[in-house]
Amino acid sequence: MTDRRLAIDAWESLFRAQHEVFHEISGDFDDELGQAEYDVLLTVTRGPEMTARLRDVTANMLISQPSVSRLVDRMVSRGLLTKCADPDDRRGSLVTATDAGAAVFRRVASAHGKAIAERMSPLDDTELAQLRDLTAKLRRRPASA
């Protein structure tokens, strides 16, 4: 049986660490690409031909489906994404990163990746792998190597 006090202490530590790290790296985003837009482009650019179903984008976001739809529409109007009907699911949509969207994503991702690596540098590779695996377990998802 899990020690309740230890579980609470671990949760509080995880929550505070996430909050502090998030606050430190939030400066990586600017007027050209905000954090939510970065998150959308992260999902989209990882898809085949830099395309993802809108429902997959929504599933990866921490905001509601209507908010994701409005965000995507704003990104389309800014030329970062295109959006079309999903030929395999008439109720769904596909979003694709434009060349401009992919370019701004790569620029921000490079700086953001450096900031994350620097902030995580107190942990060695073994500890980073353990952290990844433990957080995946908490999320009830298999860790990816």
From TrEMBL:
Q: What Gene3D superfamilies does the annotation carry? A: Winged helix-like DNA-binding domain superfamily/Winged helix DNA-binding domain (1.10.10.10)
Record-annotated HTH marR-type domain positions: 1-140
InterPro entries linked: HTH_MarR-typ, MarR/SlyA-like, Tscrpt_reg_MarR-type_CS, WH-like_DNA-bd_sf, WH_DNA-bd_sf
Entry keywords, A to Z? DNA-binding, Transcription, Transcription regulation
Q: Which Pfam families match?
A: MarR_2
Know the name of this protein?
Answer: MarR family transcriptional regulator
Q: What is the lineage of its organism?
A: Bacteria, Bacillati, Actinomycetota, Actinomycetes, Micrococcales
